[in-house]
Known about the structure:
By secondary structure, the protein is α/β, with parallel strands linked by helices.
Amino acid sequence: MDDDAILDLCCGPTLHVGCGPGGLVAELTRRGHVALGIDVSPAAVVSTVDRGGSALRRDVFADVPGQGRWHTALLTDGSLAIGDDPEALLRRVRRLLDPRGRCVVEVGPGTDPDDLAGPARAAGLRVVHAGRHGSRFCLVLAESTDGAAG
Ligand SMILES: C[S@@+](CC[C@H](N)C(=O)[O-])C[C@H]1O[C@@H](n2cnc3c(N)ncnc32)[C@H](O)[C@@H]1O
């Protein structure tokens, strides 16, 4: 149920960054999305494929298929911590997205949208939605209109 609500935020071809076991990628695929999970963990890739999703073993900071063309990038369950630098991760995610694309980020329950506004702005993104989805809290980031960050 909570997963469904998060997946409802995904539009068009979706890249799940740090997809873990792959349940979300599999469900997006069942829904008819072009969906790809990437993860540095071989076990995550195997699990995602076993569930019926597509996944590749990739470091998000290295070569990723479809760079600049993804409509949604999904970061769930703590994946904002990949690389231990949210600004660097968001900057990288922005380059993976189509300029009209969006990044759906699941954050911890105590997170205020303002907590992410700074790193998002520095990465050239802005918060366009913040909301609780079941027990999970998500922010949606889109390309900033003020021309910040390259
Ligand atoms: C906190 S887990 C979240 C798993 C999944 N998103 C979920 O919702 O269950 C973070 C995931 O990111 C993966 N990961 C860590 N560093 C990565 C990197 N540089 N590029 C891609 N995936 C990475 C880990 O292997 C792990 O599966």
